[in-house]
Amino acid sequence: MSRRIHRSRCLLSGAALFLAPLAQAQTAAPQAEPAADAPADDIIVTGSRIQRPDYAAPNPIVSFGAADLQQSGNTNVTTFLQRVPALTNSLDSTRTAGSNQADGSFGQVGLNLLDLRGLGPNRTLVLVNGRRHVAGQPDTAAVDINAIPTDLIDRVDVLTGAASAVYGADGVSGVVNFVMKRDFDGISARSQFGISDRGDAANRFASIVAGHNFADGRGNVTLAYEYNADEPLANDDRSYLTAAQRQYFVNVDGYVPGQAGSYQKAPLGDLRYPYSSNQGIIYIGDQTFRGDGAIYTPGRVLQNDGYSIGGDDTPVAGYIGDIFPRTRRHAVNALAHYDASDAFKVSLEGKFVQSTITSFSGYGGNYPATIALDNPFIPATILTAARAAGLTSIDVNRNNFDIPRRGETDRRRTYRGVVDVAGRLNDHASYDVSYTYGQTDVRATKLNDRVNTRFLEALDAVRGPGGTIICRSAAAQAAGCIPVNTFGGATVDPASYAYYLDNPVSNARITQHVVNAALTGDFGRFFELPGGPIAFAVGGEYRRESSRFTPAQSLVDNAFYQYDEYIIPTASRGRFDVWEAFGELNAPLLKDRPFFHLLSVGAAGRYSDYSTVGSTKAYQFNGIWAPIRAISFRGSYGRSVRAPNIGELFRPTTGSSAFFSDPCYVGNRNLGSASRAANCVALISGLGGNPATFTAANNPDAAIFIPGSVSGNPDLKAEVARTWTAGVVLRPDDVPGLSIGVDWYDIRLRDAINNPNGDAANSIAALCVDQPTLANPFCGQISRRTGTGFINGYTITPQNVSAFRTSGAELNVAYRFRTTGAGTFDVRLVGGYLNTLEQVATPGAEVENNVDQIFRPRWNATLSPTWSDGPLTLNYNLRWQNGVRRFSRFESDGNANLVDPRYFRYKALWQHDVQAQIEVARDFAFYGGVNNLTDQKPDIGFQTNVPISPVGRYLYAGAKVRFGGS
After folding, report:
1. Are strands 824-840 and 799-818 parallel, antiparallel or unpaired?
2. Residue 634, class by beta-carbon neighbours within 10 Å (0-12 exposed, 13-18 middle, 19+ buried)?
3. Cα separations in angstroms, 335 against 127, 130, 341, 345, 647
4. Which of 35, 202, 439, 837 could form a cystine bridge with 231, CB 3.0-4.6 A?
5. Percent of the chain at pLDDT above 90?
6. Which residues pair with residue 413 across a beta bridge?
7. How would you classify the pairing of strands 125-128 and 175-180?
8. Which residues contact 667 (CB under 8 A, 6 or more apart)?
9. Residues pairing with 636 in the sheet
10. Whether the predicted pLDDT of 23 surpasses 50
């Protein structure tokens, strides 16, 4: 303990600030420009604990306010924030529904997670009023944005910079800070209803806020309630996504490398999974039957891909499931404060949010189901062939499109409370002490899993009295068993579901305790610099976080049929705590001098002692120079850290399973790095296989799940990022109301924890052969069969082996002006340029360039002009992104024949939104709008939401009213 006490007394001075001068211009509507000599009010800007004018903040920030959110028509905050260039890769509900759920995952349905700069939600620090918020996803630090009430948001600040020096770990890519409304006086209510022009994906939203000031404004109590409901949208609700019209890019037959006009990949329709059928498939000798007794018509198996075309095989499109989940959210907030004096101010915050989200993914199947020959459902042709072959039973492979889709309902309950005591000690020093408690309880209910014993009993049908068909087991009959007929495409009796379908419930709890104490002020009592007194902030923080997961006993007991829940979960728990000391300085060197309207420098530092990874250090240096009031130059350089989260450290070894599209298949060898082909030949040959015939068609395990395992790694260490930013802000005096900011950022992350996203097992298999040599950590996680080289197992364990770099520019323009007879105009433009987004999987490996990949466009912009005149307000919003690449650079670089050039990129995003509002009275207004006015649709391919979601043209209308207050 003495080591910790000593470390906690160590204090690194420092500074980390940041709020573009555009913050005010981009939150509430900008006010008329103040006179040049008017004093600016000092505020606490996101990224610093030191008060200062907003224009004196050296780090770039993009800020959107409550009016921007309401004018967007979005009641989902994440969907709204995806217009911010830094947050295009954030996960909204369309990316966490349906088949986006990984097998064996729990509690992730409908999560809304912010991803700043494309470095991942785990590297994005989300704050509420400058304080940490409890996570919404077990084992991680990722905050579910559903837990933040929409109508209490005053503004959202998005910061790029080394934020760890001010806020601690996790903010290696920056910070998103939700600043909530306070001191609300009166009653305000809003209601909104929306629906797509196809009559689905409906939304209902309602909120009410009631507040009262007392004690001459020194105290306030505010209560708020909010309700949001989203109806689901299934894949087949859009005709262009159904099997009849859907097209996918796959490796085609007949491709001749180097031949003009011959392309390796092309869009094909009617794509199917070979060797399986939603009608049933039965092999008897040299005959193959369909479930209804007809001869089976197989699809044309693609020679260089794992799919088939046409026939009786199972359609791929049928497995997509929901593309938008069903959501019900209730949020209750209570806020109060009382200023007994300038020296003693108490504030309280309390919150309860319950989100219940349901989504359905793919169908279950029988792989195979063994059926006795006395089963009366067997068609005569199949029965005759089976008897002739001397069989006593047959095996039926079938994808069950007539049994309800499997899914999950997640109920998240978030509790959060804050107690804060603050005050002024004297004219040069103030204190702030706070305690924050957060808790998220997750109840994850798997839907429509088949209980193994009961489903087998339902499959085992015989003739009963009077020729009826019944379950063979008398005990099963007594318990309500109704026989299941799997011979055909739509033959299962819905009355049978209740007997064998079950919904196992698992639970998780995440807790967070944060105690923070800070002393802020300046040294003006002792001395001042030519630009003013040196400002400071010092303090300490203690944080403890825990996460535990308790799976349903039936899941642990492997009580479900075949692959319904083939990954057997393991109960887990983990916790850590951290003691921290921090400091910050801002030195205004010069002010109001020729060529030095303002010159200031600052620094911030933070020392942390973790119970898991030991000590870490973070710092930042920054400065701002404004030669005249109209132009400011700003910059920062800093070091940030991210400690591994609970899951990365403590997750126990858990069984897993996955389908593989082997990167060493002949058709896949040119779809990776320059090293892949040679590595694959060496790997397969070394195991005794034949690289020339190494294809899916020759792999007996190509269409089955391969067993594996996943686990944490207690030996992980903290990630370290170096970040610098530089920018200029223009506020020309002769154009009042105009602000223009341009900033460059550069983030370099080393010792990054490699957690392959999405299909993790396939990612690891690819990373193994895409490194310069086979001597890398990933190859040790993939096992292959001796004699053939085909994959027969895997392990997933996080490692500190990766590096990331991202850099780019952001443009921030806000211009508000009034006319004498044509109303008021407010024009906002936010643009982004992504110069670099690179990953190096292991030291010395080939750089993977992810610029212009899906959700990571090189160019993007949002233009939002608003016009108001008297009671009428009109708003238009254009969201644009360049068309991103369909394929990785590993696949496309050096391969001019990969795909027809017209398919090289997805279509560009052009989303047009409009809204009109009319104030019927001073405190009552109606509004309505259309999002995606031109009804742009997703492009073809496996993705269903690139460049835009399939919801389509969306219409909404709402009303808002206010009573009392000022």
Report:
1. antiparallel
2. buried
3. 17, 16, 19, 14, 33
4. 202
5. 77
6. 354, 441
7. parallel
8. 251, 264, 303, 304, 305, 695
9. 622, 725
10. no
Q: Could you tell me the end-to-end alpha-carbon distance of the chain, in angstroms, rounded to an integer? A: 54
Backbone dihedral angles phi then psi of residue 901, each to the nearest 5 degrees? -50, -30
Contacts of 634 (CB under 8 A, 6+ apart): 57, 58, 59, 60, 622, 623, 624, 625, 725, 726, 727, 728, 729, 743
Q: How far apart are CA 136 and CA 856, in angstroms?
A: 24
Burial of 658 per CB tally in 10 Å (0-12, 13-18, 19+): buried
Query: If we measure between CA atoms, which residue out of 855, 953, 873 comes closest to residue 909?
Result: 855
pLDDT of 170-190, one tens digit each? 888 989 999 999 889 999 999
Question: Tokens 């998240």 belong to which residue?
Answer: 412
Judge contact between 278 and 316, C-beta under 8 A: no
How does DSSP assign 411-469, residue by residue?
EEEEEEEEEEEEEEEETTEEEEEEEEEEEEEEEEEEESEEBHHHHHHHH-EEE-GGG-E
- Angstrom distances, CA of residue 910 to CA of 805, 814, 879, 881, 933: 28, 21, 6, 7, 10
Does residue 198 contact residue 146 with C-beta atoms inside 8 Å?
A: no
The three-state DSSP-derived secondary structure of 36-62 is: CCCCCCCEECCCCCCEECHHHCCCCEE
Q: Is the peptide bond before 627 cis (omega within 30 degrees of 0)?
A: no
Cα separation, 806 vs 851, in Å, equals 9
Q: Which two tokens stand for residue 265?
A: 């990949």
Give the position of tokens 């309950």: 413
- Provide the H-helix boundaries in 733-815: 760-770
Cα(74)–Cα(72) distance, integer angstroms = 5
- HSE-up (13 A, CA, CB side) for residue 44: 13
Least Cα distance to 781 among 846, 713, 848 occurs for 713
CA 719 to chain centre: 20
Q: Report how far residue 904's alpha carbon sits from residue 900's, in angstroms, rounded to the nearest whole number.
A: 7
Instruction: Answer yes or no: are the C-beta atoms of 248 and 316 closer than 8 Å.
Output: yes
- pLDDT higher than threshold 50 for residue 30: no
Give the pLDDT score at 51.
Answer: 67
User: Dihedral of CA 568/98/73/354: which sign?
Assistant: negative
CB 611 within 8 A of CB 577: yes
Q: Give this prediction's pTM.
A: 0.90
Q: Rounded to a whole number, what is the largest CA-CA distance in the chain? A: 106
Q: Taking a C-beta distance cutoff of 8 angstroms, is the pair 832, 810 a contact?
A: yes
Q: What is the pLDDT of residues 633-657, one digit of tens each?
A: 999 999 999 999 999 999 998 877 7
The Cβ of residue 427 has, within 10 Å, a number of other Cβ atoms equal to 10
Tokens of 284: 């008897």
The position carrying tokens 């993977």 is 848
Instruction: Pull the structure tokens for residue 245.
Output: 């019209």
One-letter amino acid of 364: G
Determine how many CB atoms are found less than 10 A away from the CB of residue 811: 15
Contact (CB, 8 A) for 917 and 959: no
Query: Chain-centre distance of CA 587, in angstroms?
Result: 39
In the chain, count H helices and then E strands.
14, 51
Q: Give the separation between CA 417 and CA 893, rounded to whole angstroms.
A: 52
Mean per-residue pLDDT of the chain: 90
Closest listed residue to residue 486, CA positions, set 417, 594, 559, 394: 394
Q: How far apart are CA 735 and CA 31, in angstroms?
A: 13
Q: Convert 168-194 to b/e letters by CB count within 10 Å (16 or more is b).
A: bbbbbbbbbbbbbbbebbebbbbebbb
For the record, the structure tokens of 747 come out as 């983030």
Q: Is the distance from CB of 519 to CB of 538 less than 8 angstroms?
A: yes
Distance CA 350, CA 568 (A): 38
- 508 membership: H or E segment, kind and range: strand 505-522
- Residue 560, helix vs strand vs coil: strand
Give every CB contact of residue 592 below 8 A, 6+ residues apart in sequence: none
Q: Which amino acid is at 188?
A: S
Question: Quick one: which of 810, 809, 824, 811 has its CA closest to 740?
Answer: 811
Structure-token pair, residue 177: 């800070």
Bond before 663 cis per omega within 30 degrees: no
